[in-house]
Design a protein that fits this description.
318 residues, alpha/beta, serine acetyltransferase, domain 1, UDP N-Acetylglucosamine Acyltransferase, domain 1, five-stranded parallel beta sheet, 16 strands
Length: 318
């Protein structure tokens, strides 16, 4: 291809790529002074939060108890600053243009956006003691549910479920506070890191654990009770999407499963739709469930080996 032909092809590609017809819904126009959410800053926020919640396991491993209050204080101050900035960025990103004209998104003049972002960050940090308490129950559940686990420290340091749940439980609180975009970014960071995909809007109770973790999907409208255990590859998804008169999915309706307390779901099971899995139910590996299950019932595929039915071992761990 000649130089002239190459120039023509490249120019044509640029024209097509920058044409508004092909960019509908795919282009975010930056406004002067309008910050954008930063993945790098969110990574630091998560690392700070992990170090605050589990000091000595994340962040500075050499932290001493006599200096712990100082170290946590420094981390909290840094967390508040970064989180305020990122919440501000999320608010600005989601706000219509006409609303942005009414406030100072840079915060230089103490604009309402920065004040709101700072307040939301403060409310999130005030929730960290309760988040730590709940995460401690998750650590206990992971330890008690895996005979291969040697200590709580091993669970906190090594198990992907704890990293995913730290992100999720922080993101969930931000979601409840009405913060846009940032919660989803946080849970997607955990998804990339651990292979566990939890939507920040899902409601998950205490003593929750996921053994191994990879491939688990928990949808936005899931409600999960206490003492629930999932294994790798479990999907808690939607079976269908009701459409509006224009053929588009209707947003915001409950469409994912409800799991009551003490439910166990084994590897690669798929639970779909707004169904209720009753308290104490056990769902076996590779099972497809689309209907309610009564409390304390079991659903699994029987296999036979030497004419002996295989049964579940609730303490399975690798």
């Amino acid at each position: 291809m000649s130089s002239k032909e190459t120039t023509h092809v490249l120019t044509q590609a640029v024209d097509e790529l920058s044409g508004m017809g092909s960019l509908k819904g795919l282009f975010h126009e930056h406004r002067d002074g309008d910050p954008l959410p930063s993945a790098k800053a969110l990574e630091e926020i998560i690392e700070l939060a992990r170090a605050i919640i589990f000091p000595g396991y994340y962040g500075h491993s050499s932290v001493k108890f006599r200096t712990l209050k100082y170290q946590i204080g420094v981390n909290v101050e840094r967390l508040h600053k970064l989180l305020s900035q990122q919440i501000l960025a999320g608010l600005c990103f989601a706000a219509p243009s006409e609303e942005m004209e009414e406030c100072d998104p840079t915060g230089k003049d103490n604009g309402i956006c920065l004040e709101c972002a700072s307040t939301l960050a403060t409310r999130l940090i005030a929730k960290l003691p309760e988040i730590r308490r709940i995460l401690a129950t998750d650590v206990e559940a992971a330890y008690n549910g895996d005979p291969a686990a040697a200590s709580f420290g091993e669970i906190i340091s090594c198990y992907p479920v704890i990293k995913a749940l730290i992100n999720y439980r922080i993101a969930h609180e931000l979601h409840l506070l009405g913060v846009p975009l940032i919660p989803r970014m946080m849970t997607e960071m955990a998804h990339s890191e651990t292979g566990i995909d939890i939507h920040p809007a899902a409601a998950i109770g205490e003593h929750f654990t996921i053994d191994h973790g990879t491939g688990v999907v928990i949808g936005a409208t899931c409600i999960i009770g206490n003492h629930v255990k999932l294994y790798q590859g479990v999907t808690l998804g939607a079976i269908s999407f009701p459409l509006d008169e224009d053929g588009n999915p209707i947003k915001g309706i409950p469409r994912h499963p409800i799991l009551k307390d003490n439910v166990i779901i084994y590897a690669n099971a798929t639970i779909l739709g707004r169904i209720t899995i009753g308290e104490g139910c056990i769902i076996g590996a590779n099972v497809w469930v689309t209907h309610d299950m009564k409390p304390r019932t079991k659903k699994y595929k029987k296999e036979k080996s030497d004419n002996i039915d295989l049964e579940f071992n609730h303490g399975t761990g690798i």
